[in-house]
Amino acid sequence: MDYIKLLGLAAGTISSITFLPQVLRIWKTKSAKDLSLNMLALLILGVSMWLTYGIMVKDVAIIYTNSMVLTMSFIMLYFKFRFKQ
Asked: What's domain 3-82's architecture?
């Protein structure tokens, strides 16, 4: 694997884990009341489109990053409905 792909994967990892503190906080507090459903919907739409693009152009870094962000987004969406207050 070349350095450019490694850079892309490293950047994707860092970008993806930015969602982890929010997911952990929601899980710990059992509250997602301050999480915007509109924001989540737009995030899921945009990330799904990026993932589709990555698959179409066969870019591993884009596929990896957006798969991770999409997973975190769906977890937050699940929590939004699970811990509705």
From this structure: Up-down Bundle (1.20)
